[in-house]
Predict the 3D structure of the following.
Amino acid sequence: MPYPTVLPAEVAKFDALAARWWDPKGPMAPLHQMNPLRCRWIAERLAAARGRKGGELHGLAILDVGCGAGLASEELARAGAQVTGIDAAEAALAVARTHAAAEGLEIEYREGMPEMLVAEGRHFDAVIALEVIEHVADRPAFLRALAALTRPGGLVFISTLNRTPRSFMFAKLGAEYVLQLLPRGTHDWRMFVRPAELSAEGRQAGLRLAAISGMVPGRPEQGWRATDDVAVNYIAALARG
């Protein structure tokens, strides 16, 4: 692939899951469960940055990098955003387009990586990359591309996994081998990202860490919730000056 941040094996891994991406009890069940929290967290902070109440995103342009079959793209489009989704996984994008059309949502889906949109001179009010950065070949280059796509004063949102003993126990061994919530081999713990690393690499790309929250699963009726504990899953907002 002609994009320096792409790991072809990672793309193939998620392309193979495309047909079951929208199955809430399938291999993407953890993403379905955390998606309401991720999108609510993003919408509230993006709206607040624009002087709006609640999570109202009408008219704001958002780029969803590594959008997969469109879980976050659709949620943010329903909040009023003008959403573009980009992914290197062709099969997942085909599912995304079909599902959005069935839901009556207008979302622009593109195959490729953010470098392609940088070359086109595209810019957005916010760029999101959810559970993506731990799968890319070059984190600093990836963050530079996200920053280049964000308008001055805009926000970049990253959700990922911390590289800690607890994340190895729960997010790798527990999720993939014990509870089998994810297919084995979904994650490489060595590629998990510590918040300090994200902050430092973000600064080098011209992004300032503005907010961070841990994400933990609650009871089934409660869903995932935000917390100060970032030892496993976390979401961060980085502001472009």
Observations:
- The chain has a mean pLDDT of 90.
- The chain has eight helices and eight strands.
